[in-house]
Automatic annotation (TrEMBL):
All copies of domain Bacterial bifunctional deaminase-reductase C-terminal, residue ranges: 7-173
Top-rank taxon, per record: Bacteria
Protein's recorded name: Dihydrofolate reductase
An example Gene Ontology molecular-function term: 5-amino-6-(5-phosphoribosylamino)uracil reductase activity
GO biological process entries: riboflavin biosynthetic process
A family per Pfam: RibD_C
TM stretches of this protein: none
Record PANTHER family: 2,5-DIAMINO-6-RIBOSYLAMINO-4(3H)-PYRIMIDINONE 5'-PHOSPHATE REDUCTASE, DIHYDROFOLATE REDUCTASE FAMILY PROTEIN (AFU_ORTHOLOGUE AFUA_8G06820)
InterPro entries: DHFR-like_dom_sf, RibDG_C, Riboflavin_Biosynth_HTPR
SUPFAM superfamilies reported in the protein's UniProt record: Dihydrofolate reductase-like (SSF53597)
Amino acid sequence: MSAIASVFIATSLDGFIARANGGLDWLDNANATVPAGEDCGYGEFMQSVDALAMGRRTYEKVRTFGPWAYGETPVIVLSRTPIVFPDEVPDCVTHSSESPEELHRRLSSEGAKKLYIDGGVTIQRFLRAGLINELVVTVIPILLGEGIPLFGPLVKDIRLTHQDTKTFDCGFVQSKYKVHSIGKD
């Protein structure tokens, strides 16, 4: 059985996941407005995940946040060049230079049922490969004007079906979509 590939990410209202220099100060400021105990569904989402695939830039950014945030969830860092992981990074973090298709096929054959795909370029690569099944996008009420976009160029439109939208008292709006990928229903 093929693993479900999911995205769970925040964007500015104008669709950016980070400033042009990779800065997330705007997101940190927004998170400071979230009431104590509210995680906007992230904890429940992470409990459903069997493995996480992220790009090297996302991995490098995550490392600046402090202690490793993903516990013992297997994390695969995608990079064309090998990575030497420091001792404080858990053994469940590995490197792969596989294509999205190869990684998805391998993790599915190893029994993964749900994959978390994270990082702009990695999400775009998995989308272009027709492998993303669902998107959960939390829109933060800020306009950045420029930055790193969540979505990049596509060779063909990708149709989405809206499944749910939630609003949070802090002004965040979170929508979940089923993705009808190229060549898939």
